[in-house]
C-alpha cells in the first residue's frame, strides 16, 4: 500500500513539475516574442492565425459545436492576394498565445480599418465564402466552443478591441504604433508607451447549496443563462486603500 502511495505521489509530483515547466517555457517564449520584433516576425512564418471581422471570430459549424479554424501565414497571404488586398495588413495581427511546441498563435481582424494599410474593410461575405466559415458574435458562440478556443478567442477579442480603441496618443493626438506582437503601442512623437489595461473583475454566484440563481435575456441563444452580475463603482484611490488595509490585516 505504501509502495503504491509513494509511486502515486511521485507521479503526481512529476506531472506538477511537467505542467509548471511547460508553463514557464511557454511564458518565456511569449515574453521573448513580445520584446523582440524580429523574433515575432519570424514566429509568424511558422505560426497560426485566428481571423476576426469587426471583432467577430471566424468559426466553422461542426454538428452541435463551433470550431475555430487556424490559418498559416501562407494561406493568409494567398487569401488576401485573392481578394486583391494588401498583405501588409498582416502586421496588424496580435500575439495571443502559443502551443507547447512553440507554435505562435496570432489574431487578425480583417474588418477593421487598418492604420498600416490603405485598404478599407474587406467584404465580409466574400471572405466567409473563401474561408468556408462565418464571422459570428463571440458571446453567442462561446458555449459551443471548447474551453481552449473560448479562452483564446476571448483574449484575442479583448486585445484587438484595445488596439482599435488606442490608435491615437492621448497626450499629443498623434497616431500610435503597435509593436510586432501587439503587447504595447507607442507614440513616436513623445515616446509614451501604452499597455493593454487589466480590469480586475469579481463575479458572485448566488446559491442555496444545490441551486444557483440564474437569469437569461430573450436575445440569448437557447440554453444560455447568466449569473446575475453588476458593477461596483469605486472612487479613485479606493482600490489602493483596499490594498493597504489588506496588507495591514495580513
Ligand atoms: Zn504622443
UniProtKB/TrEMBL annotation:
Protein name listed in UniProt: Nudix hydrolase 13
Listed PANTHER family: NAD(P)H PYROPHOSPHATASE NUDT13, MITOCHONDRIAL, NUCLEOSIDE DIPHOSPHATE-LINKED MOIETY X MOTIF 13
InterPro entries xrefs: NADH_PPase-like_N, NUDIX_hydrolase-like_dom_sf, Znr_NADH_PPase
Source organism (scientific name): Sus scrofa
GO MF annotation list: hydrolase activity; metal ion binding
Domain NADH pyrophosphatase-like N-terminal residues, every copy: 48-162
Gene behind this protein: NUDT13
Residue intervals of the Zinc ribbon NADH pyrophosphatase domain: 166-195
Amino acid at each position: 500500500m505504501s509502495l503504491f502511495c509513494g509511486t502515486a505521489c511521485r507521479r503526481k509530483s512529476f506531472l506538477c513539475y511537467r505542467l509548471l515547466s511547460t508553463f514557464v517555457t511557454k511564458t518565456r517564449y511569449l515574453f521573448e516574442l513580445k520584446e523582440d520584433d524580429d523574433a515575432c516576425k519570424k514566429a509568424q512564418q511558422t505560426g497560426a492565425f485566428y481571423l476576426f471581422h469587426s471583432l467577430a471570430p471566424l468559426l466553422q459549424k461542426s454538428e452541435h459545436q463551433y470550431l475555430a479554424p487556424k490559418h498559416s501565414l501562407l494561406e493568409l497571404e494567398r487569401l488576401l492576394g485573392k481578394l486583391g488586398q494588401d498583405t501588409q495588413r498582416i502586421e496588424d495581427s496580435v500575439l495571443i498565445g502559443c502551443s507547447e511546441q512553440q507554435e505562435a498563435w496570432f489574431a487578425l481582424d480583417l474588418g477593421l480599418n487598418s492604420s498600416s494599410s490603405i485598404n478599407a474593410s474587406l467584404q465580409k461575405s466574400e471572405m466567409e465564402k473563401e474561408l468556408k466559415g462565418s464571422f459570428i458574435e463571440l458571446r453567442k458562440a462561446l458555449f459551443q466552443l471548447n474551453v481552449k478556443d473560448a479562452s483564446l478567442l476571448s483574449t484575442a477579442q479583448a486585445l484587438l478591441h484595445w488596439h482599435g480603441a488606442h490608435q491615437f496618443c492621448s497626450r499629443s493626438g498623434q497616431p500610435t504604433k503597435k509593436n510586432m506582437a501587439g503587447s504595447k503601442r507607442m507614440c513616436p512623437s513623445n515616446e509614451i508607451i501604452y499597455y493593454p489595461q487589466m480590469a480586475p473583475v469579481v463575479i458572485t454566484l448566488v446559491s442555496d447549496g444545490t441551486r444557483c440563481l440564474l437569469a437569461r435575456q430573450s436575445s440569448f441563444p437557447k440554453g444560455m443563462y447568466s449569473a446575475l452580475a453588476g458593477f461596483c463603482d469605486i472612487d479613485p484611490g479606493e482600490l489602493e486603500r483596499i490594498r493597504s488595509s489588506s496588507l495591514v490585516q495580513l
